[in-house]
Amino acid sequence: MAASSTLLRSVLRLRRALAASMAAVAIIIASAAGAEELDAAGTSLGPRLVVDPPMVTARLFYHGKTVRVSGTAPAGHEVAIVISGKETPVDLKLKGKVGGLLWSNIGDVTIENVPSLYLLATSPGLRGSLGAHAVESASVGYRAVESKCRVSPARGADEDHRIFGEFVKLKEKQKLYGVTEGGVALTAGSSGDLDCAADFFIPPDVPVGSFDVQLLAFDRHRETVLASALLTVEKAGPAATISAMARERGLLYGVLSVIVALLAGVLAGVVFGHRSKRGH
Amino acid sequence: MDLSIYLPVAENAVSIPLLFGLGGLVGFLSGMFGVGGGFLMTPLLMMIGIPPTVACASDSNQIVAASASGTFAHARAGMVDFKMGTLLLIGGLTGGSLGVFLIKLLRSVGQADVLIHAAYVIMLGGVGSYMFYESLGDLRGTRQSKLVPRPDGRPSIYARIVRTLPWKVHFPRSNVTVSVIMPLLLGVMVGVLAAIMGVGGGFIMVPIMVYLLRMPMHVVVGTSLFQILFTCINVTVLQAAVNHTVDFVLALILLAGSVIGAQIGARASERLKGNQLKILLAVIVLVVCAKMLLGFLLPPDILVGLKAGE
Question: Which chain A residues are closer than 8 Å to B310 by Cβ?
Fold first, then answer.
């Protein structure tokens, strides 16, 4: 028994060491090849990134959950951790002045390919170490999100950029988008690597589904995806039952909702009626 | 201790005491004035993070409870004109369907939102100011009743038109005799406006019953609630079946507050004079109007908004 657990620990240690080596090798190879796109150099080392808990369950008394994402990065790098949702189109109403006096909706626009959730945390020295320009041209951050999206119908580069900025403000207000510079804590790991960790608050209005979690490393020349994992948000218990019934048996759900409301209304009438009669 | 609850259809968590309090406040207004309260509740729910479509649909569900509670209380006191209410309801449901098509037409023309909001502000401002002025005059005893003929002895144009309409019916509960065309036509008008504005229409229906049908204020409140009850049953079932946007948990907490509020409101209504009720409702309508007007004039924080359903 003791021998087998010792063997298991040795295997795990070996696996961690191997994964760390692979990450370092990936960065070296990427540097040597002069790769500029993270996809070309990206290496996914799933076990190196831990999402705790990996699944968030929304029950009736759920009010959001803080999730800790931790991993390991090669020494001498800055890191970023990003949680992003599926890219979807979002229909928006544009607000503007009508007749130079009244603020109202002045048109509709669709922003295509924007993530449903975008939470980014970076290590404290990322901007200082790489410079603002490098950060802005990275594959993470709002610039990166904007480069992938498309405003439809297009209204010219400046106007599309302004609309995207307003969209980000809206999403930040909903707490579905956020960038926290310095949100990733770095500490020296036992094997000379950097242990990195960040806490993310998953707000209650995040739609259910799976979200990509990525750990990226940056040096002066390039960036690399070190590891990726999944975070899942799902409903459970009565919340899941009610939601499924509303979706799948809408008519019955509506009729039942009305019956309950009618009963509650009449019951209140009877209760208050009796009290009233006693009172008078 | 966090007293929030997760709303499975709205997909958001909201404080239970806050929802209960909102339900109670709107239920009180509903029981007191005979309005559904949707024109207050829906924006309040949106302000606390409920998606617009879920806010509208779930609010309808809670109004079913509040209006059932209020109708029960008023019917017990003999203050519901079921005959008049049924005619208004038939007109209202027809008008609602017409309004849905009209809004589609307006949107295809463009600038529909400006037109709708402007119509909303003008109507609220007009109705509120008139009710306020008229009730104030009554309370001070400086205004003559509208039923008294004009100084020249001739009835008003409106009165002359009403008198010429056929199929006159007596409504004993309201003690008025009018053509059945009147409540049907007015019901259609309110239904159209309610569909365009996206509200239940109680706050338009109440002044119409008072000023155009000449019903006594206390019967108006109960009859309006009776009519709202059936309108909201229809909306709730349709929203649940077609759009899947009724959040039962949200509606349940709101209605727990609103049924109690409606009973207290109905009690308060019985203790106030008709003119006092009218002037209070006029103040609420004017406050909502002022808020909308400010929304028109002040620049918004964010220059985009999610379209309904997002």
Answer: 90-92
